[in-house]
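Exercise 7. Given the encoded structure of a 456-residue chain, write a plausible sequence.
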């Protein structure tokens, strides 16, 4: 007779917890998924953060593992390029990849709700809304939940995953364990963000190019816009939380109006009540989390933002959390349900890779907010894209490694990206590179350097 599968609890039914519940349910585990919030499908008010986000190949691969990719794709909009809006309203386009490669704008609530509905269809998965994890025994994975602020429910399982986001309660409880050596840091970025919107035209069409991610790069701050299927755009303004030009100093109707007029003239005409909305919202912080270990007593593990919250500038937070689930799912087969081996391999494989994407995401603010409008930077990208077309086996640009190449790990992408940067620094020093960039000698040198340095 087969040994019965473990009982597994998951705290947090965000996108990552919900995906993990589906995967574990399909593998034959009895799963209890606990979410502190009410069911957003019933309240019709989604209380999570960020209205839409960019899904890319790492996320798609994980969704494919549970057969949900095609359903999600029907409600997603491909964004094939960045469209940069300069201060005068001139537009330039930069493709994200080659051969119609795209990142996809999806509704965060939509994908979360689809995953929860799928989890509920699994016979072995139970979803409990309005259940906030408050206590956890790290010796036997038993946990307690507050159901209405007073009532406490006890739950026994063999294993518990904390998928409860950047400010994870599971992680905080682990840090308080007397003998647990837990390294931890939470770094606030100088930038915070507010979300604004551009509504659809009367006929439901989009007011800006639909199949693109729009960026208004202004060096120390930027506005971005991602399309929604109803014809609207969700826009996010990132800027310093405090300092000379910041959320703190933009505090009157007059100052904010001048700020939008000076910096986002073309967007100002399209945004829905930007001044009132800007002043009426408090800016949300952005932070990144490093923590180690992710596994405690082989009884409790961390996944998603609870293990590796990052800033959104590479559009990878959720993709990376989905990748955690995919890797766990594969390790279950590889180690034939032996959880001591699965958990240890999961931590060993994911921790360095998540450190790498946290670092890449942090650096990418500069690329998006400043360099995206810089002539030298755009030329570098064009040369790299051309070289990639000529020698796809030798050169995959960093953005494409992270976004479109799920079989290249984040750590490999970071390391290769460093070498590529040094090579491109040399190429950009060639005399007359702005005129000669299409000439053969540029690509001959690039090939020589790439073979020498990348294939070492
Ligand atoms: C502005 C912005 C833009 C972003 N854009 C992108 C993007 O383009 N692409 C991308 O891939 N990622 C993006 N991200 C990141 C992405 O939103 C996160 O990485 C993703 O939501 C993480 O999912 P999660 O399930 O791990 O955590 P969360 O989404 O935070 O979900 C955690 C869940 O746990 C619940 N919970 C919390 N505490 C408890 C408790 N004690 N008990 C029970 N339940 C609890 C919460 O209610 C929540 O539902 C963006 C983030 C921001 C802020």
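Solution.
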């Amino acid at each position: 007779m087969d040994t019965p599968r473990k009982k597994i609890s998951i705290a947090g039914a965000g996108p990552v917890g919900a995906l993990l519940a589906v995967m574990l349910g399909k593998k034959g585990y009895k799963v209890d998924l606990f979410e502190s919030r009410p069911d957003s499908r019933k309240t019709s008010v989604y209380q999570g953060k960020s209205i839409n986000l960019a899904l890319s190949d790492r996320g798609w691969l994980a969704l494919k593992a549970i057969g949900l990719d095609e359903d999600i794709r029907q409600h997603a909009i491909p964004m094939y390029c960045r469209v940069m809006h300069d201060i005068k309203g001139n537009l330039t386009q930069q493709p994200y990849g080659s051969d119609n490669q795209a990142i996809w704008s999806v509704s965060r609530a939509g994908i979360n709700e689809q995953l929860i509905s799928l989890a509920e269809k699994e016979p072995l998965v139970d979803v409990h809304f309005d259940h906030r994890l408050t206590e956890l025994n790290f010796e036997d994975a038993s946990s307690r939940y507050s159901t209405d602020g007073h009532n406490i429910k006890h739950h026994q399982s063999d294993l518990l995953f904390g998928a409860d986001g950047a400010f994870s309660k599971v992680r905080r409880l682990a840090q308080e364990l007397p003998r647990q050596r837990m390294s931890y840091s939470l770094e606030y970025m100088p930038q915070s963000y507010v979300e604004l919107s551009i509504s659809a035209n009367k006929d439901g069409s989009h007011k800006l190019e639909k199949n693109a991610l729009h960026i208004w790069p202004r060096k120390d701050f930027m506005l971005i816009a991602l399309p929604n299927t109803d014809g609207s755009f969700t826009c996010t303004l990132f800027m310093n939380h405090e300092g000379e030009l910041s959320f703190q100093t933009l505090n009157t109707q007059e100052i904010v109006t001048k700020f939008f007029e000076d910096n986002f003239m073309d967007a100002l005409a399209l945004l829905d009540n930007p001044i009132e909305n800007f002043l009426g919202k408090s800016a949300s912080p952005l932070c990144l989390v490093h923590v180690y270990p992710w596994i405690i007593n082989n009884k409790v593990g961390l996944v998603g933002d609870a293990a590796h919250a990052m800033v959104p500038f590479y559009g990878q937070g959720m993709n990376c959390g989905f990748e955690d689930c995919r890797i766990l799912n594969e390790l279950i087969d590889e180690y034939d349900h032996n959880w001591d081996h699965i958990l240890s391999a999961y931590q060993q494989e994911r921790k360095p890779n998540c450190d790498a994407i946290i670092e890449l995401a942090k650096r990418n603010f500069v690329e998006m907010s400043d360099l995206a409008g810089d002539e030298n930077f755009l030329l570098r990208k064009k040369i790299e894209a051309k070289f990639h077309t000529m020698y796809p086996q030798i050169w995959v640009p960093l953005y494409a490694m992270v976004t479109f190449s799920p079989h290249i790990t984040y750590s490999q992408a970071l390391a290769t990206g460093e070498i590529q940067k040094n090579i491109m620094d040399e190429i950009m020093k060639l005399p007359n590179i702005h005129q000669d960039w299409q000439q053969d000698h540029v690509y001959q040198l690039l090939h020589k350097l790439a073979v020498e340095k990348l294939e070492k």
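Remark. Residues 339-369 form the longest helix (31 residues). Students should compare their own answers with the one above.
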